[in-house]
Amino acid sequence: MRFRSTVVAAMLSMASMLATPLSAWSSVANELSQLDRAEQQEFQRIVRSVDGWDGTEETFKDLSAAMRRFLDRHPDFVPVMVEDTRLQWARTNGLFGIVNASKSFLPVYLELQRMAPEYPKSYLFAARSYIFTQDYEGALPSLERATELSNGDPWVNLTWALLHERKLEAKLAVEAAQKAIPNAGDNVGAMAVAISTIARNYGVTDREGAAALAKSIYAEKPDRAFIVAVVSTALDNYFYQPGLLDVVAELANIAAAELGPDPALLLAWSRTALLSGNLYDGNGARRFDPVFMRPAEDILFSIKDNPDVAEDVWGLRIDIALSKNEWDEAQRLLDEGRRLAYSERKVARKTARLLRAQNRPREIVELYQRLRLPDDDVVVEAMAMTGDRDFARIYHLRKIEEDPTNAYLKGNYASFVLDYFDDPIEAVDYAQQAYTLRPYPLAQHVLVSAYLTLSGQELRSGNLAAGRQYYNQAAALDFQENAVLQTCYKNCQEIAAALTAFR
User: Fold this and answer.
1) What is the percentage of the chain residues whose pLDDT exceeds 70?
2) 461: which residues sit within 8 A by CB, 6+ positions away?
3) 242 or 174: whose pLDDT is higher?
4) Which string of DSSP letters, residue by residue, matches 25-85?
5) Do 502 and 455 touch, CB atoms closer than 8 A?
6) What are phi and psi of 296, to 5 degrees?
7) CA distance 407 to 108
8) Distances (CA, A) of 412 to 5, 78, 239, 446
């Protein structure tokens, strides 16, 4: 098993020379001018391949070999050294975590700066490495130099946004991300990250704000394919960012009104509706509100035979079937996907969700191992259920390490350690961090459950005063007894004892 996170994907895709106009990277153009046309195309192919690395060892070896051959022909060509470094960085991140990877490769980026002082990507990746190790002051020289060299690259703006976000300077993060929008050009990834960053830092406070942001994005590039790609990428990276769904819905609506609806836009609208009506995630399935699900389902059925969107529609129809506990329908669709030769990985991941709904975790683990799929939440939960809890714990902690200001990751981890490790003290720590960052229901629920568990444990030890203190901390969060008792998992006796003694 190996980790492949959204942060790794974002790092791999950022600052692509193909996505950033060469006018924004004058020194890149100078470097490329040293090569003939065939070698320029090979370099661009390398960049695309690193951007899209799938996290597998086989592909890593192929890419590394291609870069070695290129450097044999051009031993002093720093841009390929940078691509090689970021690929190595991503692999190390998958094995040892983002902090260790950033510490390991930061000296390499600094050396590449010395070798090519006018090449901006070395400065940009060095700055991000400093940020990931929480050395925010150390990031400034490299980030300021990248800003001098960039001449309007959106990833420089977004790296400033990342720096401010990590320092909990939400307003400055929003301002930096907003600057990336007019600089994004054809860069789908940069535009999608800008939307996500603005939303995550409370830059979208109402529907009017969402409409204004959508209009500004559409004005930059009123192209249907581009808008569809931005909406799809933003939805791929959706993780409860407040306002993000409003922005992409408005963006899809504007494009449909101005350019006319097409299957890809209808698909994007359906995805947005389903996520907007996602009540909760449970047993590998998203549970959709029927009010949102029915119109989305009707639209998906109407476009299911369009070859441009058929495979994505198929995946969403499986999600809907699982939401409704229609396991036979989900299995029928999986068989259909195999018959139509849809992506083996997509079929496998949807199969895993059905297996989770059917409470068959060992088969999930075997499936991922057989196909060598990168780890995700579904297989990690299955591994925890079948006994490999330490691996699952490391997985959750690494996700927090990658995104330490994400309240939902910390809340999920708090729930995990309470349920699987029976550790209410650590659960209180992370649930409190999550609740402080964003007081959302799961964080509150886990915090209450952990306090009540500690209360019950103190009662069992005869410490009445300590038990009452923990109970009072839970009571201050205004909880519903039935909700806590229905989801108490291993700690029901302690929680019930606390409620009986102090309610």
Assistant:
1) 94
2) none
3) 174
4) -HHHHHHHTTS-HHHHHHHHHHHHHHHT--S-HHHHHHHHHHHHHHHHHSTT-HHHHHHHH
5) yes
6) -65, -40
7) 32
8) 16, 41, 12, 9
pLDDT of residue 108: 97
For residue 193 the two structure tokens come to: 């990250």
| Residue entry with tokens 């349920």 | 419
On the CB side of 385, how many CA atoms lie within 13 Å of its CA?
18
Closest CA to 446 of 492, 488, 406, 482: 488
| CA–CA distance, 291 with 270 (Å, rounded to integer) | 12
The whole-number pLDDT of residue 86 equals 94
Two structure tokens written together for 223: 């192209």
φ/ψ of 281, rounded to 5, equals -105, 135
CA-to-CA dists, residue 257 to 222, 252, 254, angstroms = 11, 9, 5
How far is 265 from 287, CA to CA, in rounded Å? 23
Residues 6+ apart with CB under 8 A from 218: 227, 251, 254, 255, 258
Residue type, 322: L
CA 238 to chain centre: 7
In sequence order, the 6+-apart residues with CB closer than 8 A to the CB of 399 are 5, 406, 409, 413
- State the distance between the two ends of the chain, measured CA to CA, in whole angstroms: 46
Per-residue pLDDT of 303-330, as tens digits, reads 999 999 999 999 999 999 999 999 999 9
Identify whether the C-beta of residue 283 lies closer than 8 Å to the C-beta of residue 359: yes
**Dist. CA 221–CA 224, nearest whole Å:** 9
Q: Stretch 161-168: mean pLDDT, rounded?
A: 97
Which residue, among 341, 348, 350, has the nearest Cα to 322 in the 3D structure?
350
Q: Residue 280 pairs with which residues in a beta bridge? A: 287
Please count the residues of the chain: 503
Phi/psi region, residue 134 (left: phi>0; alpha: psi -120 to 50; beta: rest), is left
CA distance 390 to 315: 31
Q: Helix 224-236 vs helix 207-220: angle between axes, to the nearest 10 degrees?
A: 130
Question: Within its chain, how far is the Cα of 418 from the centroid?
Answer: 24
Residue 445 CA to residue 150 CA, distance in Å, equals: 46
| Cross-strand pairs, 281 | 286
Note whether 385 and 359 are within 8 A (CB).
no
How far is 350 from 329, CA to CA, in rounded Å?
13
Sign (positive or negative) of CA dihedral 327, 332, 337, 338: positive
Between helix 120-132 and helix 98-115 the angle, nearest 10°, is 150
pLDDT at 16: 40
For residue 473, give both structure tokens: 């901390």
